Amino acid sequence: MSERKPPACIAILGAVFALAGVGILLWALSQRGQAQASESWPTASAEILSSELTESSSSDSTSYHAAIEYAFEVDGVRYTGSQVSFGDPLASQHARASSLVETYSAGRTVPVAYDPDDPSRCVLEPGEPPGAWILLAVGPFFVVIGLLIGFVVPRHLAQSRAAS
User: Fold this and answer.
1) Domain residue limits, the chain
2) Are 116 and 124 in contact (CB under 8 A)?
3) Which of 162, 73, 81, 87 lies closest to 122 in space, CA to CA?
4) List of residues 6+ apart from 28 with CB closer than 8 A
5) Alpha helices, DSSP H only, in 66-132?
6) Cα(93)–Cα(31) distance, rounded to whole angstroms?
7) Which is it for the CA torsion 141, 146, 151, 153, positive or negative?
8) Which candidate, 21, 28, 20, places its Cα nearest to that of 136?
9) Which of 74, 102, 107, 117 is deepest in the core (most CB within 10 A)?
10) Are 46 and 79 a contacting pair, CB within 8 Å?
């Protein structure tokens, strides 16, 4: 009797998980690098132009977003921004998004950190946000799960079929 191979969909699922993990990890490292760089950026006074809590729902979850728009000047040039922080994994939770909208209410004047080489790169909360490490853990977790699905599960299935 010939040995049947596990369905290719298992290997594809494993590859999808692993690639998603690599993507998450690369994005998290990029956000972390920007967050760390922003700690040494100069600051200016920004006026909060608008601040609102938005909601988006899917069939199984609801996420929230603090849509904050601000304006500031550097060397007589006006810039606008909407970045609150870099890589905040908690920003889509209702409590965190609501807190940001309250903290950065329209009409307030707050400090904004900006990249001296490109002031259009700006952020209200420089540095790493609380919980930033979560994204650095999620990426490798997905890679490991992908490798397990792609390599260990098919081998286990093949051994089980061979034994029966």
Assistant:
1) 12-143
2) no
3) 81
4) 87, 132, 135, 136, 138, 139
5) 94-103
6) 19
7) positive
8) 28
9) 74
10) no
